[in-house]
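FW: tagging you since you asked about this chain on Friday. Here's the raw sequence from the shared folder, copied in full. Didn't touch anything.
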Amino acid sequence: MSLPPNLQEIVDDFASMTREEKLETLIGYAESFPPLPERYKEQREHMEAVPECMTPVFLVAEKQPDETILFYFDIPPQSPTVRGLASILHDGLNGSTLGEILSVPADFYLPMNLQEAVSQQRLNGFMGTLAHMKHAAVHAQSV
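HL: got it, structure written out here
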């Protein structure tokens, strides 16, 4: 499986961690989760909802002049696990090309053994977020 380099590094890091380290790392990702840029705060209706998540998750993708894609998320701060998981995708895929994003398999996270640290319901939301990121990236590429 070929992943964008940043995402591959994250997968490799998690694969070597204990359950406790995974939990601590997810909290660290949640704490470093970037805030939604001001230009999107009043435009939630233009953001893509992720209904697979129990927590309200909204995202948007922007095509950059160099043809890479940047993602922005709106996730409540009181949802650290969801923010941590979204941050993995954000950090792993931001700055990737559309082709790189679309080539990420839905089960890319299996080597990370995240089921040791989070519920299947959270993993379903994680997979749903990836699917919606792909859709948003395609939309951004066509705008």
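FW: Strands lie at 48-49, 58-63, 68-74, 96-97.
HL: agreed, and The chain has six helices and four strands.
FW: great, closing this out.
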